[in-house]
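Figure caption, in words: inputs first, then the predicted bound structure.
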Amino acid sequence: MIDPFGRAISYLRVSVTDRCDLRCVYCMSEDMNFLPKPELLTLEELERLCGAFIRLGTDKIRITGGEPLVRRDVMTLFRGLGSRIGNGLRELTLTSNGTQLTRYAQDLYAAGVRRVNVSLDTLDPALFSSITRWGKMEKTLEGIYAAKDAGLAIKINAVALKGVNEDGLDDMVAWCGEHGFDLCLIETMPLGEIDGHRADQYLPLSQVRARLRRSWTLEETEYRTGGPARYFTVAQTGGRIGFITPMTHNFCESCNRVRLTCTGTLYMCLGQDDAADFRPLLRSGASDDELDAAIHAAIARKPKGHDFIIDRRENAPSVSRHMSVTGG
Ligand code: SAM
Ligand code: SF4
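Bound structure (iron/sulfur cluster present):
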């Protein structure tokens, strides 16, 4: 699948639920209204739709959310998609907050998953509880270590938050180096209403990188995942560190992905509202050919990029839907 800007679209992210057992301050408000269950695609419908994408050339699928591992029976989907690895699909992976990994790490490995991204913004237990509003860091750490023991490669995602976790990022670099985890730092993006002001959270990663350079030697690498991150090697640990800078850089020229929500809506860009709704098609008995044609039509509308702005005077998000809906 090639979009109008010549980009090959080979990567699908699937948000299997908008629900979560945490309420990270940059992601959600404390009182969230979640989707009613009947609006969600069933796991069978999700698998069929993913199958159509694989048929059309998608070779990497990331399962995300919300927290994907809180969706009931989600391992059925992992097993179903895992059976396509080597048969169209090259990689099946997930992004998780880690709270359920102790329970699922081995099953994920058995299903064919080899890498997992886990979100962890701090190594300070009290700060972790305040960022996630009620999470227990111990549970996430146990999940991360269980995933490591199960043989999964781990990348830690941390959102850089001004005046919140910035002082602890050196510790994160050291800890990731010690355990052989990649680290990816992310700028907060104006997606969905949260309590408080985005401008108060926003910390440009250019500042973070300059500060990390006081303690660490960051060597540029050519490593790319087709996504927005720029990667460096930390000379002292040998670990890899990525910087995702949607607010300070336009990262869209190499974009290879589209995102499917748990209701069957396909967003061709995280930062734009245009979407294609596959649920009516799936529920009206569309044939495989009709599904394929609808996917091609959606890819033909993929926009060039996003227009994120964080404006101190105006707290309206650039995009009204939360990251947990579109899938991170
Ligand atoms: N619950 C899982 C987790 O936390 O990893 C998967 C979904 S979460 C929405 C995916 C990623 O998006 C996480 O790494 C999270 O930190 C990030 N994220 C959420 N809201 C964000 C925002 N407004 N700006 C930047 N990153 C955000
Ligand atoms: Fe939940 Fe992930 Fe959003 Fe945190 S970032 S509230 S863990 S979906």
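Residues 20, 22-24, 27-28, 65-67, 97, 119, 324 surround iron/sulfur cluster (ligand 2) (CB under 6 Å).
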